[in-house]
C-alpha cells in the first residue's frame, strides 16, 4: 500500500500490515487501537517472511527527517489464557463455563451454543442455571479487540438425567447401571470409590454406592462404612434393598468423618520395624475396642526422602482386603482402606493392621504422619456403623539403622549372618567355638546395594560365635 495518510495526523501515525494466508491487508490508526483498512492484495509468498519498514519523508528537504518503530502485533491480538472445560452436570444444577483472553485494549466476548450466538452472553463467565437436557451441547466463545478476534476451544456440556432411585443399594457392576445382583465385584467397586480411585458417573451410581447407614440408605458421603455395608449385601447378611437416600455427591471434609469427638479410646499409631538401612518399614497399629471390621487412613511423608515401596495387611488382619490410593505418592500422600471379611472383628487391644514399606532416597531422618487425605481417618463395625477414631501425633523422624551391626539368626536349618556397612564394602566373616580361636568362613564378601554383607552356613558346632573383619 502506498499513499497519503488520509486524515491520520503527523507525527505518531500508526501503520499495520496483517497477513492471512496469502492475503495482505494494510491499516492506519491515530491511536494504535482503532484501525481503518486502507488496502488489500494477494501475493503467493513463502510462509515465513522477514518484514521490515523503510521510513521516508514527504520531500527531499534534509530538515524533514522521519523515524519509525516496528512491533509484532501478534502479541496485541486476543489470545486465550484459559479455555472453557467440558463437564457433566445433573439436571437442574448450574453449569459454569469460564474463558479468559488477553490482548491490547478493551476485550469483548460472545458465547455460542452449537454454533449460534447466545443473546446477552458477553462476559468471560457463562452460567447456565437450572440446566435442562435441551441445553446439552457444544459451547465456545469468541474474544475480540480492535486488532482482531480469536475463537476458544469447544467445551461440551452433558446433562445427566438419570433416575437417582433406580436399582439396588451397592449394586454398581457392571457400570453404570448394575445388574440387579450383589457380589464381590460390587463390594470392590464401592471400596475403590471410598478411597477416591473411582468416581460415581452419575447421581444414580452415587446413590447406590452411598449405602450406609442402612437405616437411612446413605448419608451423602462415600466412606469406609459404605464399603462394609456393600460387603454385607454381597455376603447375604442383609437383604437387597431398593436404592434411595441422598443423591448429591458430598466429598469428605479435610478431617473426614473422624472430626467429631471420639466416643472411645480407639487410636491409630505408627511403629518403626525397620531392619534395613535402605528402607523404612512402619507397622500401622490400632489400639482397638474389639468391634472394628474395617479402617481407613492416610499417610503423609517427605517425598524427597522416601518413596513408597508397598503396602500389605498386618499380622492382626489375616484375610483382609486392602485398597490403596497411591495416585499422589509422588507428592508424599497415600490413602489406605482395609476390611476384614463380612462379620469379622479385630481383637481388643493392640492390632497390627498394615505394614507400609518405603525406600529411602536420602540418609536424612524421615518423618511420616497419619492424616485424613486422600482417605478419611475412619473405622467401621460389622454392622457398617461408623466408629470414632483418633490418630497419634506424627512419629519420627526415623533415621536409617545404625552402621556396624552384626546379626545372626537360624532359618531353615542354616545360620544366616548379616553385617550392616556401606554398599560395596568388602568384609570377611570369621567363626569361633570359644571366642579365642577364629577361622575365616569362606571368601571375602562384598556388601550389596543395601549395604548388607551376608553369610549363610549350615548349622554346626564349629561356628557358635561370629565376628567380622576387613576383607582386604
Can you describe this structure?
The chain is mostly beta strands and 472 residues long. The chain has five domains: 14-71, no CATH class; 79-160, Immunoglobulins (Immunoglobulin-like); 163-251, no CATH class; 258-398, Immunoglobulin-like (Sandwich), CATH 2.60.40.680; 406-470. It contains three helices and 32 strands. The strands form eight sheets. Strands 16, 18, 19, 21, 22, 23 and 25 form a seven-stranded antiparallel sheet that branches. Strands 5, 8, 9, 11, 12 and 13 form a six-stranded mixed sheet that branches. Helix 1 packs antiparallel against helix 3 (224-234). The chain starts with 13 loop residues before the first strand and ends with a strand. 30% of the residues are buried. The model is unreliable at 248-264 (pLDDT under 50).
What attributes characterize this protein structure?
32 strands; 472 residues; Immunoglobulin-like; mainly beta
Topology:
Blueprint: E1 14-20, E2 23-29, E3 35-42, E4 79-82, E5 87-90, E6 95-98, E7 100-102, E8 108-113, E9 116-117, E10 125-128, E11 137-144, E12 149-151, E13 155-160, H1 184-194, H2 203-209, H3 224-234, E14 267-272, E15 279-289, E16 294-301, E17 306-313, E18 321-325, E19 333-339, E20 348-360, E21 366-371, E22 378-380, E23 386-387, E24 390-391, E25 395-398, E26 406-411, E27 414-420, E28 426-432, E29 439-440, E30 445-446, E31 452-458, E32 465-470
Parallel strand pairs: 5-13, 14-24
Antiparallel strand pairs: 1-2, 2-3, 4-7, 6-10, 8-9, 8-11, 11-12, 11-13, 14-15, 15-20, 16-19, 16-21, 16-22, 17-20, 18-19, 21-25, 22-23, 26-27, 27-31, 28-29, 28-30, 28-32
Amino acid at each position: 500500500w502506498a499513499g497519503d495518510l488520509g486524515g491520520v495526523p503527523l507525527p505518531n501515525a500508526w501503520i499495520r500490515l496483517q497477513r492471512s494466508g496469502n492475503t495482505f491487508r494494510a491499516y492506519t490508526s491515530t491511536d494504535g487501537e482503532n484501525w481503518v483498512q486502507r488496502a488489500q492484495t494477494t501475493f503467493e509468498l513463502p510462509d515465513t517472511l522477514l518484514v521490515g519498514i523503510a521510513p521516508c519523508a514527504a520531500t527531499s528537504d534534509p530538515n524533514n527527517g522521519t523515524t519509525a518503530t516496528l512491533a509484532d502485533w501478534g502479541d496485541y491480538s486476543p489470545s486465550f489464557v484459559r479455555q472453557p472445560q467440558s463437564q457433566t452436570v445433573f439436571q437442574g444444577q448450574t453449569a459454569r463455563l469460564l474463558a479468559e483472553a488477553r490482548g491490547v485494549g478493551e476485550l469483548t466476548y460472545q458465547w455460542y451454543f452449537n454454533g449460534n450466538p447466545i443473546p446477552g452472553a458477553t462476559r468471560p463467565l457463562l452460567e447456565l442455571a437450572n440446566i435442562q437436557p435441551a441445553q446439552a451441547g457444544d459451547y465456545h466463545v469468541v474474544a475480540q479487540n480492535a486488532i482482531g478476534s480469536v475463537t476458544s476451544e469447544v467445551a461440551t456440556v452433558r446433562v445427566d438425567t438419570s433416575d437417582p432411585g433406580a436399582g439396588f443399594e451397592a449394586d454398581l457392576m457392571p457400570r453404570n447401571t448394575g445388574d440387579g445382583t450383589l457380589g464381590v465385584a460390587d463390594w470392590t467397586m464401592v471400596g475403590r470409590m471410598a478411597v477416591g480411585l473411582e468416581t460415581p458417573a452419575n447421581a444414580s451410581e452415587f446413590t447406590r454406592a452411598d449405602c450406609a447407614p442402612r437405616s437411612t440408605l446413605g448419608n451423602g458421603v462415600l466412606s469406609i462404612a459404605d464399603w462394609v455395608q456393600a460387603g454385607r449385601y454381597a455376603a447375604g447378611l442383609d437383604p437387597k434393598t431398593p436404592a434411595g437416600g441422598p443423591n448429591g455427591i458430598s466429598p469428605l471434609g479435610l478431617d473426614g468423618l473422624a472430626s467429631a469427638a471420639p466416643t472411645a479410646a480407639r487410636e491409630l499409631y505408627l511403629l518403626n520395624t525397620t531392619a534395613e538401612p535402605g528402607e523404612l518399614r512402619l507397622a500401622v497399629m490400632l489400639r482397638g475396642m474389639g468391634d472394628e471390621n474395617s479402617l481407613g487412613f492416610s499417610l503423609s511423608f517427605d517425598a524427597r526422602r522416601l518413596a513408597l515401596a508397598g503396602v500389605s495387611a498386618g499380622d492382626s488382619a489375616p484375610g483382609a482386603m486392602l485398597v490403596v490410593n497411591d495416585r499422589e505418592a509422588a507428592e508424599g500422600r497415600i490413602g489406605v482402606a482395609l476390611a476384614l471379611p463380612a462379620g469379622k472383628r479385630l481383637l481388643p487391644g493392640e492390632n497390627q493392621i498394615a505394614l507400609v514399606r518405603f525406600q529411602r532416597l536420602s540418609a536424612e531422618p524421615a518423618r511420616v504422619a497419619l492424616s485424613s487425605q486422600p482417605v478419611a481417618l475412619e473405622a467401621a463395625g460389622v454392622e457398617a456403623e461408623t466408629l470414632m477414631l483418633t490418630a497419634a501425633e506424627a512419629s519420627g523422624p526415623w533415621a536409617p539403622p545404625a552402621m556396624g551391626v552384626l546379626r545372626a539368626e537360624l532359618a531353615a536349618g542354616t545360620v544366616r549372618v548379616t553385617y550392616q556397612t556401606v554398599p560395596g564394602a568388602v568384609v570377611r566373616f570369621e567363626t569361633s567355638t570359644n571366642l579365642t580361636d577364629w577361622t575365616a568362613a569362606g571368601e571375602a564378601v562384598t556388601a550389596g546395594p543395601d549395604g548388607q554383607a551376608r553369610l549363610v552356613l549350615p548349622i554346626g558346632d564349629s561356628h557358635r560365635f561370629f565376628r567380622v573383619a576387613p576383607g582386604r
